[in-house]
Design a protein that fits this description.
Layout lengths: L26 H14 L13 E2 L8 E2 L2 H17 L5 H4 L21 E2 L5 E2 L2 H7 L2 H14 L6 E5 L5 H8 L4 E5 L4 H9 L9 E4 L3 H13 L3 H7 L3 E4 L5 H11 L6 E7 L8 E6 L5 E5 L1 E2 L2 E2 L27
Parallel strand pairs: 5-6, 5-8, 6-7, 8-9
Antiparallel strand pairs: 1-2, 3-4, 9-10, 10-11, 12-13
Helix pairs in contact: 1-7, 8-9
């Protein structure tokens, strides 16, 4: 039989930029450029192994080396091959159309504890990401696919995306079109852009904006161009990853959620402008509360405050963190 041949190769990922042309939305493009640069330093390689001086057995099966020395040589070749033929990194192994979003911060989260991701944000306790994975957001995905058909791509808005762990969870739920935003891009840059394990596919767009500036841009694109165009901009789910007053959660629910099945998940202050305790709530597109929880497991719900609010105070707020409120 012909000599044994093993092929080891890597594929180049190529992605186009996604929604948004603003300079505030270019971080995912830089992610893909970073990955392409990384991959071009790994040339396509081919490893061929051919057994030495072989002879067929009587049954016509595998050809084996004839002598003990040749057998040892052959086995040494196989041992070398077993070292070189390894599972490639996820970003190398998958085609650009299949490579999933990934934050290198995903998997670092801990139950009941926050972990510093940057000067401006934390990786939330694992209870947060368990809640995002809840049936409410899964039901919204299933309803979207049923209402719109198999060709529809469910849309998610990830507000306060930070290091991208919540984006990773949403992508894992099936949301392939995601607008992720945070007023500071430092954590996203660290774990999605700069870390070689991070990857941002074309359907995910990061905006280095606070939620108030983002909704201004969203209105410019969708809300001022007629009802049909606005419908295209609606989201199937919206997730807030910082504490908000109930009025803001209700506003986003009514204005930006799909009217049939949209769901919003947010940690809402137990009292207006009281930033020390929140209640997790799920709302529909009318702002009606479908579910709420003061505690999730052993964790008492408490998030960083909304930096856009005048009542925000402390190290997470202006002027200590450098945030500039919209004038």
């Amino acid at each position: 039989m012909p000599g044994l041949q093993l092929l080891v190769s890597s594929s180049l990922l190529v992605s186009s930029s996604s929604f948004g042309t603003s300079s505030d939305a270019d971080v995912c493009s830089r992610t893909r450029a970073h990955n392409r640069q990384l991959l071009t330093r790994r040339p396509r390689s081919q490893l061929q192994l051919r057994p030495v001086n072989t002879a067929s057995d009587a049954s016509g099966g595998l050809e084996l080396p004839q002598t003990g020395i040749e057998r040892r040589s052959f086995l040494q070749h196989i041992a070398a091959a077993s070292v070189m033929v390894v599972q490639p990194p996820l970003s190398l192994a998958l085609d650009a159309t299949n490579a999933p979003f990934h934050s290198a911060a995903y998997g670092r989260e801990e139950y009941t504890n926050s972990i510093v991701a940057s000067r401006d944000t934390n990786i939330s306790p694992k209870e947060v990401y368990d809640t995002i994975s809840s049936e409410f957001l899964k039901e919204a995905f299933d309803a979207a696919m049923k209402d719109r058909g198999g060709d529809y791509t469910p849309r998610a808005l990830d507000v306060g995306a930070g290091a991208g762990v919540s984006t990773d969870v949403l992508y894992g739920l099936g949301y392939r079109e995601i607008d992720a935003l945070d007023w500071s891009g430092a954590a996203w840059e660290k774990y999605v852009v700069d870390d070689p394990a991070g990857y941002c596919p074309a359907g995910v767009t990061f905006f280095e904006l606070d939620d108030e500036r983002y909704i201004d841009k969203w209105r410019e694109r969708y809300a001022t161009s007629g009802q049909s165009n606005k419908a295209e901009g609606l989201f199937d789910v919206i997730v807030f990853n910082f504490a908000v007053n109930e009025a803001k959660a209700t506003q986003f629910s009514k204005e930006m959620l799909d009217k049939q099945h949209g769901r919003l998940l947010a940690p809402i202050n137990t009292s207006n402008d009281y930033w020390l305790k929140q209640t997790y709530k799920v709302m529909d597109s009318n702002g009606a509360v479908l579910w709420s929880a003061v505690d999730v497991g052993a964790w008492s719900v408490q998030f960083q405050p909304d930096v856009t609010q005048d009542t925000c105070s402390g190290v997470w707020c202006a002027p200590f963190n450098g945030f500039q409120r919209k004038k």
